[in-house]
Amino acid sequence: MSAYCLFDNLTVKDPEKLEMYKSQVLSIVEKYQGKYVVLGGETEVVEGAWKPTYLVMIEFPSLALAKEWYHSEDYKALKALRLSATDSSAVIIQGL
Q1: Closest CA to 50 of 93, 18, 6, 20
Q2: What is the pTM of this model?
């Protein structure tokens, strides 16, 4: 059963750090069998008062792999870099 990590990047505080993050993260995502399915793009709110900014969604084959990636030692330093570069919200969602 697939799982998804959804990030809503609300503000970028340090573009240089964010670029460093982006240049390194793909190989770690792929190591945990993840693939990007949303990377920015136009959004249209059709219900409610949600104000998405820059959305990123990564698909993993399972909830266990999504959690393993997010909490891994492999991702730890990059996660800290991303968190220092942005204000963002994130959720891990179990798919169907």
Answers
A1: 6
A2: 0.92
